[in-house]
Each structure stands twice: as C-alpha cells, then as structure tokens.
C-alpha cells in the first residue's frame, strides 16, 4: 500500500507565490513580460476602479487607493501567481449600503474588520471549504450582482435628476427612476451609448486594444470639445488627489464596531468566495495551482492595508486576472507593477480625470454588468438539471430582490439538499437471499448477487454500494433491520463503501447489537483501512463483530 502523502507544514502552505517564482529563477525576460502585463492590466483597471468606487457611493479616488494599495499586497503575499486584486463590482451593493447606514468611517472600519476575518479564515485553513460553493449558486449570484450593478447605473446612463436620494432596493429604485424619466439628458445618453459602442466594437474588431480606456478617453474628449452639458468627475467630486493619503486607523468606537459587524462578515465571506473563484479561473487558464489559504491571508492583509489608506474592499478580480494571464504575465510581479503603474497615472494624470463624464463610467459598468451574466452557463444548467436550474433561479432572485448574503446562504442550502438527495439515491444494497422469512412468489431479478457466498444456506450477505452517510442511513438501516434471524451468519460487505459518517456508524452498530442478541455471527467484510478505522473508533471491535478482507474470507 502506498504511504499517505505528508501533510504540508505551515511554512509551505503560507509561502507567497512570489517567493516560489523567485526560487524557480526569475530574470529579465520574466520582468519584461510582467511589466507589459502589469501595464495592460493597469490600463484596464484605471477607469474601472474609479467607476466601481463611484457606483459604491464613495469618491473615485478611493477606488484607486484600493487598487494601488490592496492590489500590491495581494500580489506580494498571495497564493496565486496571477491574481489581480482591487475593487470589484460584486461589492458595489454591499459597500453602498454600508456607506448609507454608517458613512465612510463605518465603511473603512468594516473593511479593516473583514481583513481580520479573512486572516482568521486563512490561518484556520478554512479556504478549502469555501471552494465548495455549488456552481449554480455562483452563476446565479454573479448574474444577480450584474442586474443590480446595471440598475445602479441607470441614473447616470440617462443623466436623470432625482428629487431626493436614489433608493437602494431595486423595487423602490425603478419607480423613482421612472418618475424622473422626464429629466433625461440627450447628451448623457449619447455619451453612454458612444462608450458602450466603442467598448463592444473594440472587443470584437481590436481585441488587443484597451477598449475601456479608449472609450472613456474618447467620451471625455467629445464632452470637452463640444461643451456637452453632462456631469463629470470634476463637477460632482472636484477631481481626484495627486498622491496617496497618509495611513490612518479608522474610528474604532466600540458602538460602531458592533454596528458594522454584519457588514464586515458579509465583506469577508464575499471577498473569500470572489477571490478563490478568480484564482480557480487563473488556474484553469494556466495549468498552475494556487494556495487557497495563503490567498485568503493575503486578501486579509490587503483589506487592512486598503482601509488604512482610505480604500474600500479588496478582492481578487476575475476580469483583471484573466487580462493579466492573457497579457503574458509570468508571476506576481505583474500585479505589483500594475499597482505601481496606477500610482504613476494618479500622480501624473490626476487633473485630467476631472473631465471624465459620469455617463462614460456608467457605460463601462453597464458592459461589466452584461458580461457578469453568463448566458451560456444559464442555458447549460437549464438543459442539464432541473434541480440545479431551481438553485440558480432562487439564488438570482434572492440576490436581486432580497439580500446578497441571503441569496448565497439559501442557494448553498438548496444545493446541499440537492446533493444529499442525489447521493442518497446513488446508494444500493444487494442481498443474496430474500430479506424476509415468509414464502413469496419468484420475481424477475432475484438472482444471487454472489454465488460463492450464497452456497452457505446459513449465511446472509448484504452489500452496500456508495457513500454511506446520514442521507442514506434511513434506506440502508431499513434493510439491515430485516436481518434473517434464522441465519447463523450475517456478512456486511463494505468493499464498495468509500465513506461513512457517524450516522452510518450508528446504524451498523444497531444492526450488530441486534445480531448479537439473536445469536447471529456479524462479519464486516472488505472495509478499507479508513472505513475500518472509523468503525473501530466508534466501538465496533472484535469479538462483538468480526472483520474479513473479503466476502469469501468471511465464510471460512
């Protein structure tokens, strides 16, 4: 038997991929490739970071702070070679709601607390379990976020003027926007349409060009050249600073800590899921493997660092990470350089940002929202499984109309119940004699499951196939309860049982107890070393039960 692989030690699990890349050998060719990839990603991240921050209810500079500080730390300490960290569209709703309830100070505190939670999740090695979110849940969740992001941009897409504050809930937002339809600005609509058309057109005909940056730059030039009456970053926010602020702790008032605790937990859970999904995408594109717990630790430090510099939530971003891979990145240096380039852009070109129309940034986010809805995945899931389609639909509707966290939790529970039902149906029990002592008519399919074992008329053999756990315990237990009392030997064949839990162990223990009271010899045959270890630990030991390597050995 092959020895079990040694469990990785702490240092191995939490060594950043940057160290691994340097150990493998890193030269000028790698640096050149990472510099090109980092510049490419920075060009994509520049307008997107500002757009996400504005949609989140804060100033555009906070999106840049997040990408610069948080993105640098994610690449410096992360467990993925290609992960790009920064502000993500998935957080827009949560961040905006936190700002509305607790202000920017509450947001910064919640961001820092989420970083602490991510550190705990990573160091406790819980990252492996976060990856078990069912695929229909992630598809429905992502699509729901896309719908919410698009709805949040309708005001700027059409240049609407609302009488009061824009409602957050979708069912309240849409009537308010419809009531303001008469204030729509043709100039804003034209700028937004131009931005979307350029992004879509360049992606199709010039995929190597930075479509978002080109579209935003063209929209800004058009708005300035024709003096269009559209709202800009300068008119709403007064521009962006030309440097990073000094680091400072957020307000640590105990009452505020208590108030933002639910938001911090939501940030941490969503950040963990989003980051690990992004790392898995990068693995699929490159054939590499990330370290999930190391990645979560990096995300934790990144969120703490972002909050210290006035940034918002940091997470791994799928679109920017994929761009990084396609641009030829060799390792985490590209992500660090992406943050450095963003800092350089802010230092040099900050005054120009004041001319960017908000309608153009809304157009950027509208395309992002559209791309977040995985149309092909919807169709594939609908064709494959009605149960998975139901999980997707419920998750999507709850995310859009109720709450992000509620959508994930309910979707995960439904997906788990669906899995349990499928696993329960996959287990089977075979017996080579009738399960009852009364005479019954012969029926098709009553052939002995094992002719050699059936040669002994005093022996009954039951064979369990599949995972034996709480979901299948009732089915198997009802079979085991019908032990033929007139038989002298009862053989439970576990050779096809890959796993059992404490509920299953309890069922087997009950059957063994009944056999012992009836004077029946109880033999467990073919159990793997792991299954036998669990049986022994539960108290099923010789001489109460006997163990045999196979059904054939059980009859000797």
From TrEMBL:
Domain of life from the UniProt record: Bacteria
Compartments it resides in: Membrane
InterPro entries (UniProt xref): SLC26A/SulP_dom, SLC26A/SulP_fam, STAS_dom, STAS_dom_sf
Membrane topology: Multi-pass membrane protein
Pfam families the record matches: STAS, Sulfate_transp
Protein name as it appears in the record: Sodium-independent anion transporter
Membrane-traversing stretches: 35-55, 67-100, 106-126, 133-154, 174-202, 209-228, 264-284, 296-319, 339-368, 389-420, 460-480
PROSITE patterns: STAS (PS50801)
Gene Ontology CC annotation, any one: membrane
Keyword Transmembrane set for record: yes
């Amino acid at each position: 038997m092959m020895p079990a692989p040694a469990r990785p030690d702490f240092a191995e699990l939490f060594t950043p991929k940057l160290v691994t890349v340097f150990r493998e050998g890193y030269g000028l060719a790698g640096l050149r490739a990472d510099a090109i990839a980092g510049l490419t990603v920075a060009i994509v991240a520049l307008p997107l970071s500002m757009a996400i921050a504005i949609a989140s209810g804060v100033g555009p500079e906070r999106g840049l702070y997040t990408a610069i500080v948080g993105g640098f730390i994610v690449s410096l300490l992360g467990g993925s070679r290609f992960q790009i960290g920064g502000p993500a569209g998935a957080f827009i709703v949560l961040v905006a709601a936190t700002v509305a309830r607790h202000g920017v100070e509450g947001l910064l505190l919640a961001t820092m607390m989420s970083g602490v939670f991510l550190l705990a999740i990573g160091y406790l090695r819980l990252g492996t379990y976060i990856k078990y979110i069912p695929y229909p849940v992630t598809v429905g969740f992502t699509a729901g976020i896309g719908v919410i992001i698009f709805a949040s941009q309708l005001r700027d897409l059409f240049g609407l003027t609302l009488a009061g504050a824009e409602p957050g809930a979708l069912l309240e937002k849409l009537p308010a926007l419809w009531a303001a339809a008469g204030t729509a600005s043709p100039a804003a609509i034209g700028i937004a349409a131009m931005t979307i058309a350029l992004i879509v057109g360049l992606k199709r005909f010039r995929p190597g060009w930075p479509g978002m940056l080109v579209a935003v730059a063209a929209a800004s030039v058009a708005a300035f050249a024709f003096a269009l009456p559209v709202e800009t970053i300068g008119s709403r926010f007064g521009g962006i600073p030309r440097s990073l602020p000094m680091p400072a702790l957020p307000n640590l008032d105990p009452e505020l800590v208590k108030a933002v605790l639910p938001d911090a937990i939501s940030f941490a859970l969503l950040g963990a899921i989003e980051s690990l999904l992004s790392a898995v995408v990068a693995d699929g594109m490159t054939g590499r493997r990330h370290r999930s717990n190391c990645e979560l630790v990096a995300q934790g430090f990144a969120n703490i660092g972002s909050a210290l510099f006035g940034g918002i939530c940091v997470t791994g971003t799928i679109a920017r990470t994929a761009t990084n891979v396609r641009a030829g990145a060799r390792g985490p240096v590209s992500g660090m350089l992406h943050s450095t380039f963003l800092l350089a852009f802010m230092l040099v070109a900050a005054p120009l940002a004041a001319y960017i129309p908000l309608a153009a940034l809304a157009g950027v986010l509208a395309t992002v929202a559209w791309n977040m809805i995985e149309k092909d995945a919807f169709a594939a899931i609908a064709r494959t499984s009605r149960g998975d389609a139901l999980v997707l639909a419920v998750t999507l509707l709850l995310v859009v109309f109720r709450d992000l966290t509620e959508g994930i939790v309910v979707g995960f529970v439904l997906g788990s119940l669906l899995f349990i039902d499928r696993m329960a149906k996959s287990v089977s029990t075979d017996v080579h004699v009738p399960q009852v002592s009364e005479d019954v008519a012969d029926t098709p399919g009553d052939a002995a499951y094992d002719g050699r074992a059936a040669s002994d008329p005093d022996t009954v053999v039951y064979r369990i196939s599949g995972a034996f756990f709480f979901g299948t315990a009732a089915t198997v237990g009802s079979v085991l309860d019908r032990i033929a009392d007139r038989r002298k030997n009862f053989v439970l064949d576990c050779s096809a049982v890959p796993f059992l839990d404490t509920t299953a162990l309890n069922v087997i223990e009950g059957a063994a107890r009944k056999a012992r009271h009836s004077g029946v010899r109880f033999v467990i045959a073919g159990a793997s070393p792991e299954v036998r270890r669990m049986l022994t630990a539960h108290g099923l030991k010789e001489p109460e039960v006997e163990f045999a390597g196979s059904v054939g050995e059980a009859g000797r």
